[in-house]
Amino acid sequence: MAPKEKAEGQTFTYETMACVLAVMEANGATLGNKAYELMSKLDGERSASAFQHQFRAVKNRGKELVASLQDGATPAKTPKSAKKAPTSTGKKRGSE
C-alpha cells in the first residue's frame, strides 16, 4: 500500500502541540522565523507573522510543561478557557 502524499485535514490538539514544542525546547530546538516562513510557503494563504501570532499561546504552554517536568511535577491540564480562539465582535476599534 502506497503512503499518502498528504494527510488531508489532519489536525492536532492544543495540548498535543504544546507537548511537541515542550520536547523541542527541552532538546534545545525552537520554533522560529524560518519555520514560520516555511509554514507560510506551504500554506500559501497566511503570512509568517500570522503563524507566529497563532503559535504564541501554545509555545507558552510548552514552556510551562518543560518547567513542570523539570520540577518533577505532573503537569496540570490547561483550562478550557485558555484553548478558545479569540472571537470577533464584528466592530472596528474606535467605532460605536
Architecture overview:
The structure is a single chain. By secondary structure, the protein is mainly alpha-helical. It has a domain at 14-78. The chain starts with 13 loop residues before the first helix and ends in a 13-residue tail after the last helix. It has helices at 14-26, 33-43, 48-70, 80-83. The relative contact order is 0.14. Helices cover 53% and strands 0% of the residues.
Key phrases:
single chain, 4 helices, mainly alpha, 96 residues
Q: How are the SSEs ordered, and which strands pair?
A:
Layout: H1 14-26, H2 33-43, H3 48-70, H4 80-83
Helix pairs in contact: 1-3, 2-3
- The radius of gyration over CA amounts to 17 Å
Strand content: under 5%
Low-confidence stretches: none
Helix content: 40-55%
Average pLDDT metric: 82
**What distance lies between the first and last C-alpha atoms, to the nearest angstrom?**
59 Å
Largest β sheet strand count, sense and barrel closure: none
Gross geometry:
globular
Order of helices and strands: HHHH
Structural class, by secondary structure, is mainly alpha
Count of beta strands: 0
Number of helices: 4
